[in-house]
Amino acid sequence: MRPPYEHRTDKMAHQALMWIERLGLGLVTIATFFSLAHELARMWHAGMVGLGDLLQLFLYLEVFSMINSYFGTGKLPMRYPIYIAMVALARYLLLDMKEMTETHMLAVSVAILILAISVLVMRFGHSQYPYEDIPEQKRDLL
């Protein structure tokens, strides 16, 4: 097995993919900002803020937090997308509760519970089995 980034083209491909990733995250940041501004304007014109609106704002904040974490550490903790999914499901449950059957409400609630348990399992795993440091060869490329 050859060492990582042995050839110059491997290093160039890695750097190109890193720039594409950063560009994509930048676009997600901009889109999230405009969605947040649109949502705030809608709430302002409506003259009221509901629980669904607050949960939507938390979704935007979680996306910003996830992007900030990635730019700060170069890593994307899997907990953030799971938190976003949990808040999105809670928002869905609260807003559409009147149209849902009991079985559907139970299924969404169980999905939230499964996501919460998965976060606990990941946090336990990270505390008991922490990641090793990045090898020096790869650290130079980051």
Summarize, please.
The protein has helices at residues 8-46, 51-73, 79-95, 102-128, 136-139. By secondary structure, the protein is mainly alpha-helical.
Sheet/helix structural class: mainly alpha
Our count of helices gives: 5
Task: Work out the count of structural domains.
Answer: 1
Give the amount of beta strand, in percent.
under 5%
Nearest-integer average pLDDT: 87
Indicate the radius of gyration in whole angstroms: 20 Å
Sketch the topology as an H/E string, one letter per element: HHHHH
Taking pLDDT < 50 over at least 5 consecutive residues as the criterion, the unreliable ranges are none
What is the β-strand count? 0
Largest sheet: none
What distance separates the N and C termini? 22 Å
**Gross geometry:** flat
Helix content: over 70%
